[in-house]
Design brief:
Elements: H1 20-30, H2 32-40, H3 42-46, H4 51-58, H5 60-83, H6 90-145
Helix pairs in contact: 1-5, 2-4, 4-6, 5-6
Length: about 150
């Protein structure tokens, strides 16, 4: 069993939870090493399902883009969490709105550049996945014939 017998679960993001998707992305980034180790294990590879996940988690560009998206969402997440508190904090809300305004444009540009550069690497991964599927189909056909 992986992770010393501990069960690893992700948060289930929902529309009604404040910042659920941002939290989920942060959790995935936090568990980067665990995800890479689990997808590289023999047990995972023997399941013959979701092989593309192993290829994607090996790409450093994927983790760079994920980090850029988290950086983009973090000021908005902080603003949401601040508005959700039970205390009066209108002065802080103004400060956080100003920070979101200041950080949103460079964050969008950074994420856009990283996504464009990652498109080529994902094309290679997609090609590998299709090739592996074709090989698997050929093997199954050979087994059926014999």
């Amino acid at each position: 069993m992986h992770n010393n017998g501990r069960v690893l679960l992700f948060l289930r993001p929902s529309e009604c939870r404040m910042g659920g998707y941002a939290l989920q992305l942060m959790r995935v980034m936090r568990l980067k090493n665990v995800i890479a180790e689990c997808t590289a294990s023999k047990v995972f590879l023997d399941t013959k399902k979701f092989h593309f996940i192993h290829d994607v988690t090996k790409l450093d560009m994927f983790w760079d883009v994920l980090f850029a998206i988290i950086q983009l969402l973090y000021p908005l997440y902080r603003l949401l969490r601040l508005c959700d508190t039970q205390r009066g904090c209108i002065d802080k809300v103004k400060f956080y709105v100003m920070q979101v305004d200041r950080l949103l444009e460079p964050g969008l540009d950074n994420t856009k550049v990283k996504l464009e550069s990652m498109a080529d690497e994902f094309e290679v991964v997609r090609w590998r996945v299709q090739r592996n599927r074709q090989r698997g189909r050929r093997r199954r056909r050979r087994r059926r014939r014999s």
